[in-house]
Amino acid sequence: MEKLNYYPNSAARTLKTNQSYKIGLILKGSDEQIRLNPFYINVLLGISQQCNQRGYGTQTTVSNNIEDLVNEVNIMMKQQIVDAFVLLYSKEHDPIKQLLSSEGLPFVVLGKPVNDEDLTIPHIDNDNILASKRLTEHVISQDINEIIYICEPAHFEVFKDRKLGFETTVMNRQIKHQIVELDINRDEIMTYFKANSARLKRNKLAVITSDAMLHLVVLSVLYELNISIPNDVITATFNDSYLTANASPPQTTIDIQPQELGKLAGIAVLNMINDTPQSMAQYTLVDTKLNIRQSTQR
Question: What pTM was computed for the model?
Fold first, then answer.
């Protein structure tokens, strides 16, 4: 077709097939920390590549609170703007998931199943409990006396699992630890570390964060407080990216392979639309990898 300079007319194809040839991508919000998060950028790339190969486009939600998000998704369904959805998060009692299920529209979830009903829906995820255990074990092996685990409030399954993996490991190893829930808010994070700055410098202490965007703010605060990494404190986080690999110093991370997660989600949702038998399980786990860098090497 390219040699003949011919390309299908998308409007005509939509009229003939009654399909939009678009996949809706549902983000948990649209604030800057989400839009600029390398995790979502790479997931969306993986999905878009699969869609592009099969003649589909994508449309991403832009709402920033749950009421607006429900309304936006409902409009996308009622106006037949998309043929199916990929839900880019998993959490209990989610009105978006309930809406999609009630309408019978095909959708895939990036995350873990939270109930028996979810087992009928394709879910693509990492084993975040195992990944967290692996990261925590590495940090413990670096001759530390205490670990501070900083996480966002655990509304989403991914953060619950990472927190559980950390708790299980430090309890089994009888390591002194503290779990601190903080939003990605620099003033809030600064207040916490200012109150604990002396403690950071006199103990063999580590800081693990539950997300790379949260981690970048922590690194900025530690730098401002003249707390040296890895001399005063060692640091590690989840989701490897250009940002963590090129931080100062480069950060030890768990690579959760977001582009592969997106690729598999794209394949699954397109197969559902086209009634193609799934070659993967309803609950598919993508391997993770521990990348050890200077931030945990004294």
Answer: 0.90
* Number of neighbouring beta carbons within 10 Å of residue 286: 16
CA–CA separation, 216 vs 289, rounded Å? 20
Task: Provide the residue type at 205 as one letter.
Answer: L
Amino acid occupying residue 9:
N
- Tell me which residue of 116, 93, 120 sits closest to 107, measured CA to CA: 120
Q: Could you tell me the domains of the chain?
A: 10-127+258-288 (3.40.50.2300), 128-255+290-296 (3.40.50.2300)
Residue 153: which of 123, 129, 188 has the closest Cα? 188
Give the C-alpha separation, 261 to 1, whole Å: 31
Antiparallel, parallel or unpaired: β 123-125 and 283-285: parallel
Residues 25 and 262 sit within 8 Å (Cβ to Cβ):
no
Residue type, 91: K
**Taking each helix axis from N to C terminus, what angle separates 212-224 and 186-195, rounded to the nearest 10 degrees?**
50
Residues 50, 268: contact at Cβ < 8 Å?
A: no
Tens digits of residue pLDDT in 242-297? 999 999 999 999 999 999 999 999 999 999 998 766 655 689 999 999 999 999 99
Calpha distance 233→235 (Å, rounded): 7
271 token code pair = 């197969």
